[in-house]
Specification:
Chain lengths: 277, 193
């Protein structure tokens, strides 16, 4: 188990922005796209997203590597709609009884397929260009997330590479003891499940020890009440300041403007079909 | 330093909930690949029978940690971790994590965080499955026939009740038996041999 390091150029103009600003921008765009069922809006948004990709320091090939499973998703949605569409309006193209293909069905299928991509890509781009540590710091400093939870989650996330090593060790130890499932798929599955369980037990044990070590360094003292009954809230400073500057505001406003433009264009050409009508 | 009240989170609660969330974030990420890969051989809506795995933390978190917010926190962080590892669905999975966590937690909140038996776990799993179905239908399948939508919802609820509810409860018992949960009320109920 090895996880890929950040795949983008971290110094690119938009990749450098505050993680909270990037998340907000992606959320605005995604939600705007969920609101409509026409094919024009997601197509326009997709074009804009792909055009902006270089500003995030990400190559198109890298995006394709991360997003290709969506093709399967989108194809499933399209085929599913042709088979199970709620209404079959428009001109009949292929008369097949209950699964008659009409222009309405095809437009709807195209719209849903494009929507899968357009809604997902902003988030995929943002997460690919964001470092988990920066994200945790920004969540605490800009969104005022509870620091004990954000740092606790970050500590657990940083155990991941260790868990990868431990998985290899468990596997080797079992092999050394002569535990071999051979070619029997059921035996393989059982061995996999028991190794995964052992890994989880080890991870929880490691987490428990980590919590003791964190408490010993004063991690948990904030928010609990002291012996005198007074809430003890030590003043904490931040080790890694995250700044939310003018450029970050511009990014969020830009996302709002882009969503507005895309929706306006689709309304202007008469394609817009609201989700709740 | 005095003892925290029963509903306050200790450091060990936060770290172990996070460890569970990270472990299931990896599972989510693998399940994403399965859903968009080999499992595609099973056509929708029948593929929904494997859906329950995405909802395990919403039930496992409360069962192990037994604090208000454990379901929301564990499911949300697991979704966030799967996004950081590179889920193809992007940011929307964080929204899913939030909704599913709230739904799973709801069953435990209804008992006032006092009952931790299997029926509550199964109810939590079923509720989380219903939340996931609702989001999926709004997001991916809005124009499908209503029969299809009901079948999909039914499958997701059943899958989540069994895998997330029953599975989460079984996994908690198994973890308690190893002694690794001894710092939690959930681990102190084990039968000493």
């Amino acid at each position: 188990m090895r996880f890929a390091p950040p795949v983008a150029d971290a110094t690119a103009p938009l990749a450098r922005r505050n993680p909270v600003a990037k998340l907000a921008a992606a959320a605005v765009l995604s939600l705007a796209l969920v609101s409509t069922l026409d094919p024009v809006t997601p197509a326009l948004a997709l074009a804009a997203e792909l055009a902006l990709l270089p500003l995030f320091g990400m190559r198109h090939r890298e995006l394709a590597r991360r997003a290709w499973p969506l093709l399967v998703s989108a194809l499933g949605v399209v085929v599913g709609l042709v088979l199970f569409a709620g209404e079959r309006t428009g001109e009949v193209l292929v008369p097949l009884g209950p699964v008659t293909v009409t222009t309405g069905v095809l437009t709807g299928a195209l719209a849903l397929g494009l929507r899968v991509f357009a809604v997902a890509l902003p988030g995929v781009i943002v997460f690919a260009t964001t470092d988990p540590t920066d994200l945790a710091d920004a969540l605490v400093q800009q969104l005022k997330a509870p620091p004990r939870f954000a740092i606790g989650a970050l500590a657990a996330f940083r155990l991941l590479p260790l868990l990868g090593d431990e998985w290899e060790m468990l596997t080797m130890a079992r092999r050394a003891r002569g535990v071999d499932p051979g070619r029997n798929p059921v035996a393989r599955l059982r061995l996999f499940a028991s190794t995964a369980f052992a890994l989880l037990v080890g991870a929880i044990r490691r987490g428990t020890r980590l919590a003791v070590a964190m408490d010993a360094r004063g991690f948990g003292s904030a928010g609990l009440t002291s012996q005198t009954g007074e809430p003890s809230r030590p003043r904490r400073t931040t080790a890694r300041p995250q700044r939310f500057g003018r450029a970050d505001t511009v990014l969020v406003l830009g996302a709002v403007a882009l969503s507005g433009t895309v929706l306006m264009l689709s309304i202007a050409v008469g394609a817009f079909r609201p989700l709740l009508s | 330093m005095s003892q925290p009240t029963p509903h306050q989170w200790r450091t060990v609660d936060i770290v172990v909930a996070s460890v569970l969330a990270v472990a299931f974030g990896v599972v989510f990420w693998a399940w994403d690949a399965l859903w968009n890969g080999p499992a595609d051989a099973i056509p929708l809506p029948a593929r929904g029978i494997i859906y329950g795995v995405w909802l395990v933390p919403a039930v496992l978190g409360p069962l192990v940690i037994r604090k208000p917010g454990a379901g929301v926190y564990t499911e949300l962080v697991a979704a966030l971790v799967s996004a950081l590892l590179g889920t193809p669905w992007g940011l929307i999975v964080v929204l899913y994590g939030l909704f599913q966590g709230v739904a799973g937690e709801f069953a435990f909140a209804l008992t006032g965080y006092r009952v931790w038996r299997w029926p509550v776990a199964v109810a939590g799993g079923a509720l989380a499955g219903a939340a996931a179905a609702l989001l999926d239908i709004v997001n991916y399948y809005p124009t499908y026939a209503s029969d299809w939508k009901w079948a999909y919802t039914g499958l997701l609820v059943a899958s989540s009740a069994v895998i997330a509810g029953g599975g989460g409860w079984t996994l908690t018992r198994a973890l308690a038996q190893t002694g690794v949960l001894d710092r939690f009320a959930s681990g102190r109920e084990r039968v000493a041999v």
